[in-house]
Design a protein that fits this description.
about 0% helix; mainly beta; single chain; globular; four-stranded antiparallel beta sheet
């Protein structure tokens, strides 16, 4: 394990934005909690303590892609996707001791990618197995696979779960659609065609809409869950690689790495309302539970940016590992 301190801790000030912040807005400089980043090309994850912006590298295995921290902030999970050889592991990190405490083998369920903690149950996560066209329900406390559900689609890459824990949705890169799974009944519900190379996905917490990005078309399709119809399509993106929706369901964030932008949309209006420009290939994004702060990995910079969503500024950047991708936030405990 290695320890680093970011050399770029100063507030970076205003960057290019689509519209100015409110004149009375105050800067919400988050200085508590932890951030976990999967570094694709360095076989490790970065764990950042936001009190000091100190960063520790934790070895997790070849090709880590996505990272999440449990709602309590106590446990982190990194998916070990692999490189040339397909990966089949989850790395479980104890945040308090800042160390890898368990590596869970998923056996035949290879290329684990998207990961989400089950709402209300920090002992379980939902993981995509891209190579086997499944989502895998894993008990991380016991270190075992509990169930699998077919997605009935190719390239099931990212996953989102409704706030009530009843439904999971996957973005299917190969088949260009999204799949819905019933987590209580452990069954596939339906697959909806969307657009070519659907990769980014986010579920509105109340389960009424699913937002899905097409890497080919540069669009974000908004699906009405009740009807299964695409009710709106947002355009003007180069590559809507990753999406996140705030816990209150008010805003969506869309990472656009080839345009070096992050876009922020109003969920109710189905409209992009502002953007941050001039970023170094933004990849992963997560929004803190209070909806005021986001954390965005910047591949070109090898950093994670702390974004104030009220003032629409980058507060600071913190150095991480090579090719940072998935990112998770956890509160202080």
């Amino acid at each position: 394990m290695k320890y680093f301190r970011s050399s770029s801790l100063a507030v970076l000030g205003l960057v290019c934005v689509a519209s100015a912040a409110a004149p009375n807005a105050s800067i919400q400089d988050v200085r508590s909690g932890f951030v976990l980043v999967a570094n694709q090309q360095s076989a490790n994850a970065s764990l950042i303590d936001l009190r000091t912006d100190s960063m520790q590298l934790i070895e997790v295995g070849e090709g880590p892609h996505e990272a999440q921290i449990s709602p309590s902030g106590r446990i982190g999970v990194v998916t070990v996707y692999g490189t040339q050889t397909p990966g089949n592991q989850l790395a479980v990190i104890d945040i308090a001791s800042r160390r890898l405490v368990r590596t869970i083998s998923l056996g035949a369920y290879t290329r684990p990618h998207g990961v989400v903690f089950m709402p209300g149950d920090e002992s379980r996560v939902v993981v995509t197995s891209e190579a086997t066209q499944l989502i895998v329900l894993v008990n991380i406390a016991e270190g075992k696979v509990e169930n699998i559900i077919p997605t009935q689609a190719t390239g099931s890459h990212m996953v989102g779960v409704t706030a009530d824990g009843k439904r999971a949705w996957t973005a299917n890169v190969g088949s260009g659609g999204v799949s819905e799974m019933d987590l209580a009944a452990n069954k596939h519900v339906r697959t909806i065609s969307v657009a070519p190379r659907v990769e980014g996905i986010a579920v509105v917490p109340n389960g009424k809409e699913v937002w899905a990005g097409s890497n080919t078309n540069g669009t974000v399709s908004i699906i009405d869950v009740a009807s299964g119809a695409i009710v709106d399509t947002l355009t003007g993106f180069s590559l809507p690689y990753r999406l996140a929706i705030s816990a209150d369901g008010r805003i969506a964030m869309i990472c656009d790495p080839t345009a070096n932008k992050v876009h922020v949309a109003d969920v109710a209006q189905h409209k992009v309302i502002w953007s941050l420009e001039g970023l170094g290939s933004p990849r992963g994004v997560t929004i803190a539970p209070d909806g005021k702060t986001a954390f965005v990995t910047l591949n070109s910079d090898r950093t994670v940016a702390v974004v104030d969503l009220t003032t629409r500024t980058i507060l600071r950047k913190i150095a991480v590992g090579a090719s940072p991708d998935g990112v998770g936030f956890g509160p202080a405990f």
